[in-house]
Amino acid sequence: MNERPVVLVTGAARRIGATIARTLHAAGYDLALHCRRSRSELDALIDVLERARPRSTLALQADLAEVERLPALVDAAVQRFGRLDGLVNNASAFHPTPLGTITAAQWDELFAANARAPLFLAQAAAPHLMASRGAIVNLIDVYAERPLAQHSVYGMAKAALAMATRALALELAPAVRVNGIAPGAILWPDAGKPPAEQEALIARTPLQRMGTPEDVAATALWLLRDAAFVTGEILRVDGGRALL
Q1: Percent with pLDDT over 90 in the chain
Q2: DSSP helix, strand, coil percent of the chain (3-state; round to 5)
Q3: Residue 195: inside a domain, yes or no?
Q4: Active site residue 154
Q5: Cis omega before residue 174 (within 30°)?
Q6: 200 band by pLDDT with thresholds 50, 70 and 90
Q7: Domain count of the chain?
Q8: What SS3 state is found at 170?
């Protein structure tokens, strides 16, 4: 069996997921890294990690909306490394759904990525995490608590993930800890955000700046490795924005 702890990270090819992967790898974890479409970026990340520590990664590619494929991701990680110590549900879908234009397809897409896949991955991983007394970290959002205009379905899906985090923490105790991270302004969307909106958001953040992917990754590492008496919690990494 692999001597190093092993974590499965979804949505690991880019943005916050890639930073989580680099942070965990530097801390001594072997990694099963998932992507949906960004395979070239995932391969580039894995090349860097493998040069640092050979045979320490596994690439996985799947559409998490295909729920029947989710157990196979866990099985592949366990087959490759012989164990599973952590699951980071980072993969997400995000797009606006203005009231009056919402479709069932939008609902299905946002709930599949943000709520259903994390639950079914946790269910598949649970026996292995119980054996290793491991942990789950779910990436949620400050908008699970405070609605974002024109993004009602996204907020509802992340709120469902917040409830799943607490429910799983209860059901998997005492062997497995389950916690969440609710990031604030860390990275702007791929489509960008107008400068005026960026400035307004930072003005509503007590620390008066954006956070970084490293802020989120460090929190994920702490929850996985060090927070031995913490479960069922959702930590805001938002620069104090929830205070206002």
Answers
A1: 90
A2: 50, 15, 35
A3: yes
A4: yes
A5: yes
A6: confident
A7: 1
A8: helix
